[in-house]
Design goal:
Number of strands: 14
Structural class: alpha+beta
Largest sheet: 5 strands, mixed
Radius of gyration: 22 Å
Oligomer: single chain
Low-confidence stretches: 319-331
CATH class of the largest domain: Alpha Beta
Mean pLDDT: 85
CATH architecture of the largest domain: 2-Layer Sandwich
Order of helices and strands: EEEHEHEHEEEHHHHEHHEEEEEH
CATH topology of the largest domain: Nucleotidyltransferase, domain 5
Helix content: 25-40%
Number of helices: 10
Length: about 350
């Protein structure tokens, strides 16, 4: 039976799945809206993938990434957990050998990755301000009465894009409202917003970095033609959109899983039929009072994380490829059960 590998990327806005084979060909992908329900979204996504594949097919290894990578690892039974920078870089390099710059804008964060000779030499992430992210664009599309799917096409119709000032979402939105009230067309407003977001992204994340071609633009916002044009105008050269731009994190996690040796820890596609309990407790072992997150599947601990020390750590596929699993004494476990 042909081997294939599963990658799962869990973010605040989207949860993505990708299946790749031994040759690196992407076999299937799924893009789901997380909608504040990561556990349910992961379970439903696995169910759909299992239905697509049919009985008798299971991945040889599983990798997870994204802000919810530890939760995903515990739920699916990951063999490897990696950060978003590594996953996106690996997918981009495999997709475009020789890539030198990766622009990635997701639902709630954005990042830039500088690559030289297929090695990440620098990167920056913005996880604090929502300016330029998919959620901000969604909100402005709603304010302007435009379906987000039409946002890019309308931006390309602009004759005189307005100048939107402000590097913060609050100020940018205020200026957009002002320009709207004094009579600028919707097309010019949208194009001006795209330019402002591209300019702010480059002046913030790309500051003091050499943004060089070939450049890949990925993440959900890459579907916006107005943003693509805005980046090209600011950079002075074309940017490329990879085929699987919206799920590159999941694709990268699947590629990384190819390095796993031995049997997989994958729990199976039938996760929706199993009892999953997500909880937390505060460790009183020291003055840090860490809040430990715990996942149990059918009553058994599937993962724990959140501590500053490995006392309660039980993290499948931990960074670096090895799980840290420290046995917890019966006294500690009993104490945890009474406190939860």
């Amino acid at each position: 039976m042909k081997s294939f590998y599963l990658g799962v990327d869990v973010g605040s806005i989207s949860t993505c799945f990708a299946l790749v084979d031994e040759q690196g060909e992407v076999l299937r992908t799924r893009y789901e809206r997380t909608q504040g329900r990561p556990v349910e979204t992961i379970r439903e996504g696995l169910l759909r993938l299992g239905e697509d594949l049919g009985p008798g097919f299971e991945p040889s290894a599983v990798g997870t990434t994204g802000s919810g990578r530890h939760l995903a690892a515990a739920l699916v039974g990951a063999d490897l957990v990696k950060n978003e920078i590594t996953a996106h870089a690996v997918a981009s390099i495999r997709s475009k050998p020789g890539v030198r710059t990766i622009l990635e804008i997701g639902g709630q964060d954005s990042k830039i990755i500088i690559v030289r000779d297929e090695i990440v030499v620098d990167f920056a992430m913005n996880t604090i301000c929502a300016a330029g992210t998919g959620s901000f664009l969604d909100h402005q599309a709603w304010r302007l009465g435009v379906p987000i799917e039409q946002f890019g096409d309308l931006a390309l119709q602009a004759e005189n894009p307005v100048n939107i000032t402000g590097r913060c979402t609050v100020f940018a939105e205020s200026d957009l409202i002002h320009k709207q009230q004094i009579g600028h067309t919707r097309e010019n407003l949208i194009a001006g917003l795209c330019r402002a977001l591209a300019r702010n992204y480059l002046s913030g994340l790309a500051k003091d970095k050499e943004v060089a071609s070939p450049t890949l633009f990925q993440g959900g916002v890459a579907a916006n033609k107005g943003m693509v044009k805005a980046f090209e105008e600011e950079l002075g050269f074309p940017v490329e959109i990879p085929e699987h731009f919206a799920v590159m994190g999941a694709v990268g996690a699947a590629y990384l899983a190819q390095a796993h040796e031995g049997p997989t820890a994958f729990h199976g596609f039938d996760l929706p039929a199993r009892k999953v309990k997500l909880g937390s407790f505060v460790c009183d072992g020291c003055s840090n009072h860490c809040e430990i997150v715990e996942v149990r599947i059918d009553g058994a601990v599937a993962g724990r994380w959140g501590g500053r020390c490995p006392r309660w750590s039980y993290a499948p596929g931990e960074e670096g490829g090895q799980a840290r699993r420290r046995p917890v004494t019966s006294h500690e476990e009993g104490k945890r059960e009474r406190s939860s």
